[in-house]
Amino acid sequence: MSGADPERFDGMLLAMAQQCEGGMNEFLNCMFGFLARKTDFFTGGLAGQAEELIMEAFKRHQGSAKANADKVQEEKDKEEKKRQERIAKRKAEEEKQFSNEPKIKEITDEEAEKIEKEMQEKKKSEAKAEELQNGDKTEEGQGDSKEEEEEEDEADKNKIKPNAGNGCDLPNYRWTQTLEEIELKVPFNVNFPIKSKDVVAQIDRKHLKVGLKGHPPVIDGETYN
């Protein structure tokens, strides 16, 4: 009997289990009820022998079921570990690729022309907005004394008015600022496509240098702070 196929009765037992609406409790009651009614399982042996056989079979199959469950869980853990390793590897490759990308990206002639055109249009709109703002001022403060106006003019003498980005528009470059960052735009008027290797952008603790290799720098000086 030990060499017999352990699954040969699975079809009948499965059909029986499916008809037991009370679940496993009803299924076991049917099995033991059959043994009590149709066999001498409970009474044909020595005292306690039936219970010993039941517990022996129970523990054997309990161990087998636990081993199978542990094996399935182990396979799941291996697959999850492999999945996490693939995710970590892909993330590391993406970070490496990002770190290797040039900080100054190459642009085409068309893109450079578009940027310069946008800057010019922005300057025009800012100038127009400033004119409207100056024209819409109320007469409040117009009654200030001539002495105060002269003092204000003297204090603002030789100062450049800030642009709409709280920065400054200078002949060769312009910059804007927020509380978190400063944006500096330097257009280059050259007749060849600029590549990242052509650009000189040196930022030191209190010095800034920007330009093109082989050309005089557009910016080369100490910073205010």
UniProtKB/TrEMBL annotation:
Residues 68-107, 114-145 have a biased composition (Basic and acidic residues). Its main location: cytoplasm. Residues 61-170 are annotated as: Disordered. Coiled coil: none annotated. PROSITE patterns: CS. Belongs to the nudC family. Plays a role in neurogenesis and neuronal migration. Necessary for correct formation of mitotic spindles and chromosome separation during mitosis. Necessary for cytokinesis and cell proliferation. This is Nuclear migration protein nudC. It comes from Tegillarca granosa.
